[in-house]
Design a protein that fits this description.
Helix content: 55-70%
Strand content: under 5%
Radius of gyration: 32 Å
Largest sheet: 2 strands, antiparallel
Shape: flat
Strand order of the largest sheet: 1-2
Distance between the termini: 25 Å
């Protein structure tokens, strides 16, 4: 179709867009089915290998736990072997806080242990003039108009019934 010159041509173009979107959706659905099937096959193929790997890791860990002094010399936490490395990692301590922690710290005089995040309320700034915004290092970004096309799904259903 060349350029659109009439309202009827817009209707025809929207109908064609709806057909194209249906075709795109069908192609995407077929691709997803293929991906899902391949993923399921890979999971089936690797399931026993994953189980065996996990079992071997557990056996290595059990040996390592019992023979720690023998496996890790000089206080080291890991050991390299020809085919890989085993070891222990110490994660850092973490602190769990409750909703009341900040208030309790403040009351006890530990306000230096409280983080306060300052940030402007953009919704409140919308009422400022451009000059006022500039005073505070702000800019108004004018909303952009954008064009959209939404093809009717009912149109496709009608077209499919008519073709059948």
């Amino acid at each position: 179709m060349k350029s659109i010159k009439t309202i009827d041509q817009i209707e025809d173009a929207l109908h064609r867009i709806a057909e194209l979107e249906r075709g795109i959706s069908e192609a995407d659905n077929k691709a997803q089915e293929i991906i899902n099937k391949a993923t399921a096959e890979a999971e089936n193929t690797s399931r026993s290998m994953i189980a065996e790997r996990e079992e071997l890791i557990e056996k290595i860990k059990a040996y390592s736990d019992v023979h720690r002094a023998e496996v890790y010399a000089d206080g080291k936490k890991s050991r390299e072997f020809t085919n890989g490395t085993i070891g222990y990692r110490q994660s850092p301590d973490s602190i769990e806080v409750s909703k009341e922690t900040a208030e309790l710290l403040e009351k006890a005089g530990f306000s230096h242990c409280i983080k306060i995040k300052k940030e402007p309320v953009k919704a409140a700034l919308k009422g400022f003039s451009d000059e006022q915004l500039a005073q505070f290092g702000c800019n108004r970004i004018t909303g952009q108009e954008s064009f959209y096309v939404k093809a009717s799904e009912a149109c496709i259903a009608h077209a499919v019934k008519g073709a059948a």
